[in-house]
Design a protein that fits this description.
By secondary structure, the protein is an alpha+beta fold. It binds zinc ion. Zinc ion binds next to loops.
């Protein structure tokens, strides 16, 4: 069905390499969703965001498929899933995994997300873990608040 002779398709090219590297077969839904994530202006997208954009492009795809593909991408470490609370609801958002760790601040007013990385915070966490004889596998820090220049 979703057969895949996309080798000469410009949009698909990078995506194809990434999918192959992740050991995933190249299917049209996977390529489309990956390219949405790659070209997203705000690069933290919910499944619904991606679904709506694909519908706008005239794609025939179900929300269930978008969820399934994102879950496969997460398992293959192509994307990272975060849970951001904004405007009173918790939402899973996905971003491409570039292998660089960063933390997030999220506006509870608008849902705007800003990424940051701070060496001192990172190092303090390691020191604190060490004091507790604790090995960190992963961490995420999300600051909630509002940007003072927001409407
Ligand atoms: Zn991020």
């Amino acid at each position: 069905m979703y057969i895949v002779n996309l080798i000469n398709d410009n949009i698909a090219n990078m995506s194809n390499i990434e999918l192959k590297n992740a050991g995933l077969k190249i299917t049209l839904p996977r390529v489309k969703i990956l390219s949405k994530l790659e070209n997203a202006e705000k690069h933290h997208l919910s499944a619904e965001d991606i679904y709506k954009e694909l519908l706008n492009d005239g794609e025939v795809i179900s929300l269930a498929t978008v969820y399934r593909v994102l879950t496969q991408f997460e398992a293959a470490k192509i994307v990272i899933r975060h849970h951001f609370d904004s405007e009173g609801n918790s939402q899973a958002v996905f971003e491409l995994n570039h292998g660089d760790h960063h933390d997030h601040m999220v506006s509870v007013k608008t849902g705007k997300v800003v990424e940051f990385y701070d060496e001192i915070i990172e190092n303090r966490q390691k020191e604190i873990a060490k004091e507790h004889n604790f090995k960190i596998n992963d961490h995420s820090m999300i600051l909630y608040g509002e940007f003072l220049d927001e409407e």
